[in-house]
Design brief:
By secondary structure, the chain is of the alpha/beta class. It has two domains: 149 residues, D-Maltodextrin-Binding Protein, domain 2, CATH 3.40.190; 95 residues, Glycine betaine-binding periplasmic protein, domain 2 (D-Maltodextrin-Binding Protein, domain 2). The chain is 45% helix and 20% strand. The strands form two sheets. Strands 1, 2, 3, 4, 7, 8 and 9 form a seven-stranded mixed beta sheet that branches. Strands 5-6 form a two-stranded parallel sheet. Helix 5 links the parallel strand 5 and strand 6. It is found in: Cell membrane. One of its GO terms (molecular function) is carnitine transmembrane transporter activity. Keywords: Cell membrane, Membrane, Transport.
């Protein structure tokens, strides 16, 4: 009887060990989920959910947490968030890098040539920011902005000061700004908004950036993955995937356009992944 019980205990032990090994295979490097933070903008959603699904395909549990931009940077710096996949640096979100950069890992540039600025419909007959004051009445003295915490809003406040613009910068949501812009175009009204590229609006509307002779908006940004300091040490395989990740601005815009047309973040990311298996394999080192 004792021998039987000993054999049974050994069998149960081996079975439990086998289950644990299988579970470990399903959740590489432990059961803790990978946490991605992202602000409420479509370029960030595009990169976040593509990476989420790529990591999930490798067996990781992944959580995507939406928060305002400051909270995302702070969360990564404090180690509560593993990474943010769409930081606009060095200009647009540079204030956050100055504040938190010592506690962040600048993993890599994933895209180059991103830009921000003041944008108008192409039928508007001015071409430069320094022409805004003489056409104030046509724009009702308003610059339509987005969420108050956005980097582009802080930079545009500096633009208003540098150009001595007699305009009010109005905060809104990104969706609200795009809706107002579309309404103005439908009625062929003059409107100036804060906008950036990549953005789906450039695929749907005829728009142009106003020239910035004082170069307040800078020469353009990179889209950057920033991670918590110790990610490369305790999640090296995740870090390796991030270090190989790249996305053309045109690819990001295509996902953003699908989002605007009603796809969920998961659906738009899955569509892009299905259509670009070679790129995904490169990120996975295959």
């Amino acid at each position: 009887m004792k021998s039987f019980m000993l054999i049974l205990v050994l069998m149960l032990t081996l079975f439990a060990a086998g289950c644990a090994e299988q579970e470990e295979e399903k959740t590489p490097q432990g059961a803790e989920p990978v946490i991605i933070g992202y602000p409420p903008w479509d370029d960030a959603r595009a990169n976040t959910f593509v990476l989420k699904q790529v990591l999930e395909s490798e067996g990781y549990e992944v959580e995507a947490i939406n928060a305002d931009l400051g909270a995302v940077f702070q969360g990564v710096a404090q180690g509560d968030i593993d990474f943010y996949a769409s930081a606009w640096l060095p200009t647009t979100q540079g204030l956050y890098w100055e504040r938190y950069g010592n506690d962040l890992d600048y993993v890599k540039n994933i895209s180059t040539g991103a830009r921000i600025g003041l944008v108008v419909p192409t039928y508007v007959t001015i071409d430069s920011i320094d022409e805004l004051n003489e056409n104030k009445d046509k724009f009702n003295g308003d610059i339509q902005g987005i969420e108050p915490g956005a980097g582009i809003m802080a930079t545009t406040e500096t633009v208003v000061e540098e150009y001595n613009l007699d305009y009010k910068l109005r905060a809104s949501s990104t969706v609200g700004m795009a809706t107002e812009l579309q309404d103005s175009i439908d009625n062929e009204e003059w409107m100036v908004v804060t906008l950036w590229q990549p953005h789906w609006a450039f695929a749907r509307m005829d728009l142009k950036f106003l020239e910035d002779p004082e170069n307040v908006y800078g020469d353009g940004d990179n889209l950057v993955i920033v991670a918590r300091k110790d990610l490369s040490e305790d999640r090296p395989e995740v870090y390796e995937i991030l270090s190989r990740y790249e996305m053309e601005l045109s690819d990001i815009e295509s996902i953003m356009l699908d989002l605007d047309q009603g796809m969920t973040s998961e659906e738009a990311a899955a569509k892009w992944i299905e259509n670009n298996p070679e790129k995904v394999n490169e990120w996975l080192g295959e």
